[in-house]
Amino acid sequence: PPGPGGVAVPRAGLKKYVLPPDYSGITLPERTKLKFMDKVPAVPKVKREPRQLRDIRGPSREATDFIQGQYGILALGGGYLHWGHFEMIRLTIARSMDPKTMFAIWRVPAPYKPVTRKSLGHRMGGGKGPIDHYVTAVKSGRLVVEVGGRCEFEEVKPFLTQVAGKLPFPAVPISRDGLQQMRQEEEEKKLNNQNPWTFERIVTANMLGMRKYLSPYDLRLKGRYWGKFFLQHRV
Amino acid sequence: APAAKMAALSGGAPWRRGWLPALQLVRRGSKAVTRHWKAMHFQRQKLMAVTEYLAPRPAVPPRCLPPKKETLEEDNGYARLLRRQVEEVFRDNRMIAVCQFNSMPDEDVVLMRRYLRKHNIEVKFVLNEIVRPVLSQSKYKNLLPLFVARNILLVSPERKVKEMLRVLKGVPQVNLLGACIDDTILSKQGVENFAKLPSLEASQGQTVGALALLPSQTSSLLQCGSQHLTALLDQHIHRLQAGETGSTAEPTPAQSS
Fold first, then answer.
1. Taking CB atoms and an 8 Å limit, are B37 and A235 in contact across chains?
2. Domains, chain B, ranges and CATH?
3. Which of A150, B66, B164, B184 is 20 to 30 A away from residue A88, measured at CA?
4. Model confidence pLDDT, tens digit, residues A53-90
5. Are A16 and B51 within 8 A, CB to CB?
6. Å between B39 CA and nearest CA of chain A
7. Which GO BP annotation is one of this protein's (chain A) (predicted)?
8. Which residues contact A145 (CB under 8 A, 6 or more apart)?
9. Across all residues in chain B, what is the average pLDDT?
């Protein structure tokens, strides 16, 4: 409150002691560092598989929530992770975290999907190329790694942002509260949208014959996804 | 190649004249999922533009409204303890003096506390934000204007005001603002007057003396008349005796009374 001269007089009040965070319910697993992921699965595939890009498209149905850890990296787009990405993640996190107080776990499987590549400098034709490497498919909304232990989000955020920037799809470091808040904001946006026309409404009713220009998958994707990209600003 | 096309076109229902199959359109474009941002059909672009999110706009923008002051009432256990202590202080002690405390060197503070401790006066440092709510809810509401800026409480179960004032006179940085002695609020002048009063025993003796004054006079008042008469008659006798010894002896000693 300002004093007689109009200037606020600084006073010292009672010090409010902040209690240290409570880590009582957290148990560290035996191996706190990330497991080594193989380049090629133990049983390499013989039959070459079709491309099936639908494993990149749309929202993820698995690994969308936290299991053991408190913080993680959330994928905001679809993409393929190959062995180089896995090694980068593993080494960066192992270098930056404290194995005595923190732990990290994978939320994506080791590369399982074979990707073929034709040798360089050849013309089209001559059949499908041989298997070059293996990848894991990641859809948007999936957690890639989870980090937990006796640590705060601010300690973990720097190296998780570093890792998230190097992934082939847009990703963000996130905590349990952050994820919950994100979902809550989405719900609120849906509710207080002033626009009476939503993509979902127009597509389900096929207004103006819009389905001629849209894919049948747009009924499920509802305008939030375009190819492998996730449009976060859209309702 | 044209013969094959004619043969195919002459087939079943989809191959009617003038009907273009959709496969021809798909053949030339890219797949649904691409590494680059695939160009949208113009109709789709229009649809995306129409169905964008519109944020709600209240009639009065929130920055024109008065700001909402959210009072966080986190009842600190420590604050509760301090409040309880202040209540105890006000309950237990008979004399509570409120003084303004300016910053002093620490050794002077220690000396002052020692001198006051000799007279069984305790020095308590209080925080205004704790004392003010406690006082406003008790009967000491009129002490509230004293608790502004840095202050201390000098509390004691006895009432040694003279010694306290002597110590405080030697310490220029502590100024007496007011006191509450036996549930009576006194200002600085009042405290000085209180100090100048005689001690309890002396005042008790004085009241007893004043009360006993009248009864002590009653006996002398009652005996006054008869004593006066006795004195007059004695005088008379002396004068008569002096007159008779000059002339003759007294023939009638029975007349003397």
1. no
2. 77-196 (3.30.70.1730)
3. A150
4. 999 999 999 999 999 999 999 999 999 999 999 999 99
5. no
6. 10
7. mitochondrial translation
8. A34, A72, A73, A89, A93, A104, A105, A106, A107, A108, A163
9. 83
Which residue of A194, A206, A213 to mutate against B (max B Cβ within 10 Å)? A213
Chain A residues near residue B37 by CB distance under 8 angstroms: 226-227, 229
With a CB cutoff of 8 Å and minimum separation 6, the contacts of A59 are: A139, A140, A141, A221, A224, A225, A230
Q: Which residue of B has its CA nearest to A169?
A: B35
Q: Can you give the pTM of this predicted structure?
A: 0.70
Interface test with A, best of B25, B50, B51 (most A CBs within 10 A): B51
Residues of B in contact with A195 (CB under 8 A): 51-54
Phi–psi pair at A149, nearest 5 degrees: 120, -165
Which alpha helices (H) appear in chain A, and where do they start and end?
Answer: 83-96, 153-166, 176-191, 199-205, 218-221
- Report the residue count for chain A: 235
What local confidence, expressed as pLDDT, does residue A39 receive? Answer: 96
Q: Which CATH architecture has domain A26-175?
A: Alpha-Beta Complex (3.90)
- Window 79-138 of B: residues touching A by CB (8 A cutoff) are 79, 82, 127, 129-130
DSSP codes joined into one string, B136-187: HHSS-GGGGGG-SSSEEEEEESS--HHHHHHHHHH-TTEEEEEEEETTEEEE
For B231, the enclosing helix (H) or strand (E) is helix B200-246
- Sorted by sequence, the CB contacts under 8 Å of residue A36 that are 6+ apart come out as A90
Sorted by where each begins, the domain ranges of chain A are: 26-175, 193-234
**How do residues B143-153 score in pLDDT, each as one tens digit?**
888 888 888 88
Distance of CA A42 to the CA centre of its chain: 26
Task: Kindly determine whether residue B76 and residue A16, on different chains, have CB atoms separated by under 8 Å.
Answer: yes
